[in-house]
Amino acid sequence: MQADGVELNIFQDVPLGHKVARQHLHVGCEVLRHGAIIGTVTSDVRPGEHLHLHNLVSGYLPTYTRDEGSRFGISKVTPTERI
Q1: Domain that holds residue 26
Q2: pTM for this predicted structure
Q3: How confident is the model over 7-57, as pLDDT tens digits?
Q4: Nearby residues of 24 by Cβ (< 8 Å), 6 or more positions away
Q5: Residue 80 placed within a domain
């Protein structure tokens, strides 16, 4: 796969709407999507690796989630230090 002219090897299936790292990301690095910070990496990620909630904490505060079936609630995510 190519991303911005850089050839990437994809190591696993990546569901539609999920992300793929274009460069090596270390724990604590902020992740940009379309120029906006969307979260912080919680474990090292290599180029071409699937990037989602298993290795990324959301940067959206507050985060709106479905709670108890049909009610919407606000879930606050602990902010991480920016690097």
Answers
A1: 2-75
A2: 0.63
A3: 888 878 888 888 899 889 999 999 988 888 889 999 999 999 999 889 999
A4: 44, 45, 46, 47
A5: no
Q: Which residue has the tokens 């290795």?
A: 55
Written as six digits, the tokens of 66 are 């479905």
Residue 69 lies in a domain: yes
The span from the CA of 35 to the CA of 37, in Å, is 7
Asked if residue 83 is part of any domain, the answer here is no
What is the CATH number for 26?
2.30.130.110
Rounded distance between C-alpha atoms, residue 78 and residue 61, angstroms: 9
CA–CA separation, 71 vs 65, rounded Å? Answer: 9
3-class secondary structure, 33: strand
How many structural domains is the chain composed of?
A: 1
Structure tokens, 37: 């910070």
